[in-house]
Amino acid sequence: MTEGNFVDYVKMHVSSGNGGKGSAHLHREKYIQKGGPDGGDGGRGGHVILRGNSNLWTLIHLKFKRHFKAGHGAHGSSGRSTGADGEDIYIDVPLGTVVRDSETDTVMFEITEDGEERIVVEGGMGGRGNWHFKNSVNQTPRYAQPGIPLEERDITLELKVLADVGLVGFPNAGKSTLLSVLTSAKPKIADYEFTTLKPNLGIVEYRDFQSFVMADIPGIIEGAAEGKGLGYYFLRHIERNSILLFLIPADAKDIVEQYEILEDELRRYNPEMLDKERLVVVSKSDMLDDELKSEISTILKKDLKADFMFISSVAHQGLTELKDKLWKLLND
To answer: Contact at 8 Å (CB) between 201 and 213?
Structure first.
């Protein structure tokens, strides 16, 4: 389900470190007959930590390494010396990564900020040395605590692309063409369905050196929420988009019906997606004359429950107006 270097789904096994044992040492020194207990504490086991990294866009760097194990804590020693902590393992992930427990399929947390650190499995605490247990009754304890054992679990990482505008439409609606015209992205464009097999991101340059991010996902067909076509596999990539831009070609048999099918698929996948700002764009409108545009506009104003506009990516018609509209929606 992935193409090229785009990897957005990874399973892995993570294991923290054991806590070190506390020492039960009794002080021995010339001329000191009863030195008493001086065993130190064991060191903490290493954590496995996920860290957000804004320079990463996919999970490709984790594709071939699926096992991560932190270091064990060192044992305590004499002189109340505490053992060294185990080495922590840091795993860098792109922003928008959702972490699930593979066994229960529950969401543990999500990484959304650069430098954000979340512990996946905690290292075991080190055991306390025998000097902690000395008291007036038991002045020479010959025992100490063992360290807390490690934790391990299987986790699943799912990347949800973070973008300002997400393109939604049927296959061959012109999404990739629009992305290639508005940005420097080079998505695959061809005259057959499901040309796009992976999400593509591009930065749209706006006035006064400002910009916003646009994401193109593979085409949706009726029944995608049940797994038809490329199914719901890529629908999660538009869950994090601020605006949903519906692209429907001008030569569609029924523009309103196609919009309602797309809207219904999103509703069945996640009803919250319909709370986002939406804009309908009739693409390939260079095929329409002014009279036909007027007729279609009359129908859409009556039946379409969303704002709409006409564009042509190939003829560069309406693109400036589209960027103005998107920028206004983003800032409102």
So the answer is: yes
